[in-house]
Design goal:
Layout (H helix, E strand, L loop, with lengths): L1 H22 L2 H18 L5 H28 L4 E10 L4 E4 L1 E12 L3 E12 L9 E5 L3 E10 L3 H15 L6 E5 L2
Parallel strand pairs: 6-7
Antiparallel strand pairs: 1-6, 2-5, 3-4
């Protein structure tokens, strides 16, 4: 009942506004439309750096977990390995490369016709999206610090070699950053 009453009340107000708008001069209509559009643009929320940073961190953690899970499944399929669990540690959280506006200038100085010197100056300014948010050009994934493989199964040099080479090939990590441990 209350919903029906509110709906009819809103419709009556809309009718009054439309009738009042129709009665206005053409110039006032244009000004009114511009005003409404400006208000809408001001009220549209912009995505803040904190929200996008949190979303990026969540995505990064999901990618890290998925990488560990996928590698565990693949290494568990090696003959002689019953089950493998992977722990990957990272150097950092990745590197952002921000969009920059590059300006270079060249200065030439001549001292009495004897000596000429040239000086080039490069100025890089970070580009913003109209607000306080910087525009990210690329994001590089974090570097892997080390990989630890815990596996159960056969304990032989051949299995260890297979686990090392499969991990090196999958992640592109040097062998000295990989540790293989047989567990029961």
């Amino acid at each position: 009942m209350l919903k029906k009453y509110l709906k009819s009340w809103v419709l009556q107000i809309m009718k009054l506004l439309i009738e009042g708008f129709k009665a206005l001069d053409k110039k006032l209509k244009i000004v009114g439309i511009i005003f409404v559009v400006a208000v809408v643009f001001v009220l549209i929320p912009t995505s803040g750096t904190k929200k996008s940073q949190i979303r990026d961190d969540i995505n990064l953690e999901a990618i890290k977990r998925e990488t560990e899970k996928n590698l565990s499944v693949k290494l568990s399929k090696i003959i002689g390995v019953e089950k493998a669990e992977i722990v990957i540690t990272y150097e950092n959280d990745g590197v952002y490369e921000y969009q920059t506006d590059d300006k270079s200038s060249l200065k030439t100085e001549n001292e009495d016709g004897k000596k000429t010197s040239h000086q080039t100056q490069l100025e890089k300014k970070t580009v913003f999206d109209g607000g306080k948010n910087t525009i990210i050009k690329t994001r590089k994934m974090p570097e892997i610090k080390g990989v630890c493989i815990f596996y159960s199964g056969e304990n032989s040099d051949l299995i260890h070699k297979s686990l090392y080479s499969a991990t090196k090939g999958s992640l592109g990590v040097e062998l000295h950053k990989i540790e293989v441990i047989n567990i029961k």
